[in-house]
Amino acid sequence: HRALVLTGHGGYDKVKLQTRRGADPRPGEVSVSVRACGLNFADLMGRQGVYPRLPPLPFCPGMECAGTIRALGEGVRDRQVGDKVMVLALSGLWQEVVNVPVNQTFPMPEGMSFEEAAALLVNYITAYMILFDFGNLRPNQSVLIHMAAGGVGTAAIQLCKTVENVTIFGTASASKHDFLKESGVAHPIDYRTMDYAEEIRKISPKGVDIVLDPLGGSDTAKAFNLLKPMGKVINYGVANLITGQKKSLMAMAKTWWNQFSITALQLINQNKAVCGYNLGYLDEEVELLGGVVAELVNLYTQGKIKPKVDSVWPFDQVADAMRQMQEKKNVGKVILVPEAPKEESKKAEN
């Protein structure tokens, strides 16, 4: 079968389409015929060699996919051939066929497309746990969502809407503001032309209750200073590292130098919380993640959340798919599919 393989660290051309020999699923595993895969920021960082816990090169990237079970390993009782599932892993899912432990698969809800299913797990688990487990989001609170038109951003907006009267501030380039307003962002802010902290203070002098921080570097300090008493900043990435196709030592040095640091003693008098979240380090927490996915499936079934697919790209156009995300052109999720998608599901590439 065909698989996308990261052959070295660097630019878009380092991910190559290769043919791999398949194997039967081991005991406790299922074999899945993959119909759609999700592209995540972590995959871009992995390509540049700045993401932890990935296998040695060459390896197959991909943290999430959706498809149909084609074979069961020994001892698998709670899945059947033909079941439609969503899959979560540290890497290895950008292939036509994958073998995964059964506890890394989750049944797709009725009526969900494979593209939507490939857009659900990473972004929505991240947004859900940040907003509700760390953020403790309550009615009448305010939230700042950075990269609000991205995968986690669109998920977070929808999840905020499940709580009464939450005021959302969202940063994104100006061309995406209409979409953000339609989605429920009260105050879209163009981070390219404005100081988002100043803009927020004009509207809400005391600041906000929760900041989702995927940026890192100096933006974490800005986030912390924007918090109201009892507010929380949740850092879940260092998107500021990604400046060009290849790893930038300048960006790394700058981000490291500017990283936010505070002592426990200083925190006491601030009445604020600083949290860190990385889904990639929760891979052992099967029950925890299973509970979150069950809640998300429930919300999907009730029509309260619906993954927003930006664009769908065949495996052989993976470079263009990564460029779409890295140049921040996407509104919602960038999806990869083994076969070329039908024309109607693929939006114009301009």
From TrEMBL:
InterPro entries: ADH-like_N, ER, GroES-like_sf, NAD(P)-bd_dom_sf, Quin_OxRdtase/zeta-crystal_CS, SV-ATPase_mito-regulator. Residues 10-336 form the Enoyl reductase (ER) domain. GO terms for cellular component: mitochondrial outer membrane. SMART domains: PKS_ER. It comes from the Eukaryota. CDD domains: MDR3. Gene3D superfamilies: Medium-chain alcohol dehydrogenases, catalytic domain, NAD(P)-binding Rossmann-like Domain. Keywords: Acetylation, Oxidoreductase. Coiled coil: none annotated. GO terms for biological process: negative regulation of mitochondrial fusion. It holds the Pfam family ADH_N. Transmembrane segments: none annotated. One of its GO terms (molecular function) is zinc ion binding. Belongs to the zinc-containing alcohol dehydrogenase family. Quinone oxidoreductase subfamily. This is VAT1 protein.
